[in-house]
Structure formats: structure tokens, C-alpha cells
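Task card 7
Instruction: Convert sequence to C-alpha cells.
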Amino acid sequence: MMFEIQTTRRRFLVGLVALCVLPRWQSAARAQSQTKPPTPECPDDDDVTPRQTAGPFYSPDSPQRTSLLDPGTKGTPILVTGTVLTTDCKPVANALLDFWQADDDGEYDNVGFKLRGHQFTDEQGRYRLETIVPGMYPGRTRHIHVRVQPANQRVMTTQLYFPGEPANDRDGIFDPALLMDVKDKGDAKEGTFTFVLKAV
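Output:
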């Protein structure tokens, strides 16, 4: 009789501990799965980033920097991040990315280097750009220009676009394959884009 009471009591305590601990473990696991950054899917040959025109406002020899935000820069801040991959899913380390864009009024700086700059990907092929959402340049939708060049390889020039822009449908250059994934982050925005280059 005493053995049955002890066994029943032991089972009760084990069950009570499970009820208390398991929900916490499940909540922690769920939180971890929601905060863990997604792993980029491996692209295939059909996912190669389309080339586009550089336009008339490209300037060489831009400063090396990951932030295009100078003192007094007005506009909605946006952080654009992503990776440069090959079609065989390998990160492209030390790739040059050269960005330029219009300001909040839709104008380009063709004298200096406002909202212009270049950087290099890290060992995992990652890049990080702080800038603003560009204004509307006449006849175009919102876009950011970029030249991507792996070490000792040819330049790939293209443009990045913003989802939900009414002018996208009226822009003859716009390509939906070049849409960034953009989300609101308070008074700012965050965008992501993976550049995919042919494996060499």
C-alpha cells in the first residue's frame, strides 16, 4: 500500500514538472524559430539576376562606405541587406557592389558623391547598405542602381525596385525579378535582395 502511494505521488510530481517545464521549452523553441534568420535558398540557372541599364548618372570612383547617409540627408531611411551567390549556391566573397540613386526629391548628385558609394562582400558573400528610399525621378519608378563585380570578373549592372509602387506598372524598364523584399521598421524600412551570378 505504501509503495502504491509513493509511486502515485512520484507520477504526480513528474507530471507536474512536465506541465511547468514543457510549455516554457516549447515557447523558447518557438521564439528561437521565429527570430532565427532564414537561410537563403539555393538558386538555379533561371534565378540569375537580370542585367539592366546603368542610366546616364553613373559616376566612377565613389567612396568606399556601407552608409550613404550624410549629415542632413532627408528621406525615409532604409537598410538593404543580402548576399551575392553563384548559381551553384556558393557565396561570392570580396565582390564589389557600387550603389547610386536619386535623393528624396528624385535628383541625382552629378557633382559630388551624395547617395553614392561602394563596398565589398564579406566571406559569406553578405553586404549591408544604409541609405534612403529614393524619390521619384521623372518617367521612372523608385529604384536603386548597383554594379556587382566579383574579383577579376566582368561587371553586372542592374537596378533594385520597391514593391507596391504604382509607377512600377508604367516603367518600361521595371522587372519584377528585381523587386526587393521590403518591410516597415518603425519610421524606417528594411529591404533584402540576393544577387545571383553565373558560376564561373
